[in-house]
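Lab notebook, bench 4. Still working through the backlog of constructs that have no structural model yet. Next entry is a single chain of 167 residues. Request: give me the structure tokens for it.
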Amino acid sequence: MEYEFFSTIGQDSHRFEEGILDSASNNIMLGGVAIPYERQFQANSDGDVVLHAITNAISGATGVNVLGGAADKICLEQGIKDSSVYIAEAMKNLGENKIIHVSMTIECLRPKLKAYIPAMKARVGELLGIEASRVGITATTGEGLTEFGRGEGVQVFVIMSFKRGVT
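Model written out:
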């Protein structure tokens, strides 16, 4: 069988709420992993910008926008805040498209992510049905040139690669 390969882009960002919390008892979600941090995201859901950007990349392949559509119903009407549910919803529309690789860049000043990247890769791989070795994650402060690099929130860009059979 012959295959066609293609890529999509997804992006998402969230600001942090004002005010500092006890980082020992507060977490933010990134890549499906709870990370201790002293602030919370301004978001209706758990604010997991990694999973939101991945959901947007899947939507780029399927043409079905989940965030702002089905995700609003899931979050606001059903009260489900877990962003992994949005990925599952987006994947329902994949059809013959198979995810083969995902790469992302996370831009933020804090929290520092290096220690959490292996767990994030494992969780993202699990959610997408691919090996963790097919998940690339880098983190940057962007040299403080944006609000994210200055600590006001987190921004994520994702490139996702797919294959599908062609006749």
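Notes after review: The mean pLDDT is 93. The radius of gyration is 16 Å. Flag for follow-up if needed.
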